[in-house]
Amino acid sequence: xxxxxxxxxxxxxxxxxxxxxxxxxxxxxxxxxxxxxxxxxxxxxxxxxxxxxxxxxxxxxxxxxxxxxxxxxxxxxxxxxxxxxxxxxxxxxxxxxxxxxxxxxxxxxxxxxxxxxxxxxxxxxxxxxxxxxxxxxxxxxxxxxxxxxxxxxxxxxxxxxxxxxxxxxxxxxxxxxxxxxxxxxxxxxxxxxxxxxxxxxxxxxxxxxxxxxxxxxxxxxxxxxxxxxxxxxxxxxxxxxxxxxxxxxxxxx
Length: 253
What we know:
The protein is 57% helix and 8% strand. The chain has a 3-stranded antiparallel beta sheet with strand order 2-1-3. It has 253 residues and is mainly alpha-helical. It folds into 2 domains: 27-168, no CATH class; 179-232.
């Protein structure tokens, strides 16, 4: 009579093989910020207003005012949008949402000069004469505005504002730049918190839970912080209980 030993189920556990959910990077917001910065920079190089003036003594004078002259903050704002990409990559949570709010305010400020130019404000001629530095005896004969640079600036501001809305609504667990750029103190604290959270999840879900494996960096950071990531839930309590039993055995008659 042969013993029929039970054959273990060789079928893989689909839950255990399920990959861990990957955190999402704000790719769309970053692309919009880059496009907005490019649009603002291009608009600052184009001619927004052409002023023709005459003083009655010399020939008529024509001045071409580009976006950098008409709105002096246009180029710095483009550089700020580029710098905000690095800030977005390096932050997450409420800091990233705060970046979104600030970017939205900058986008609103950027749209004001272009909108005023497109609506043909009555102050356009006076502002053009001031920026062209015309002499006091000169009179403005004609002011011609170019709509395309202003529209391009508005498009850049709209792209930045859309990116700001996306950043302000980013979830708390969205990804950020690689952890190797983090401060070691904060990285170790985060690793300890993640190990503790993983232990709690395993204790609630049981031994067959499909928790994802911790990354190697998190394991090393947790060890540096004095936390053993391989320690099972309740293991310290069992160790303490064994220690108490040993003490009682030593003092027993």
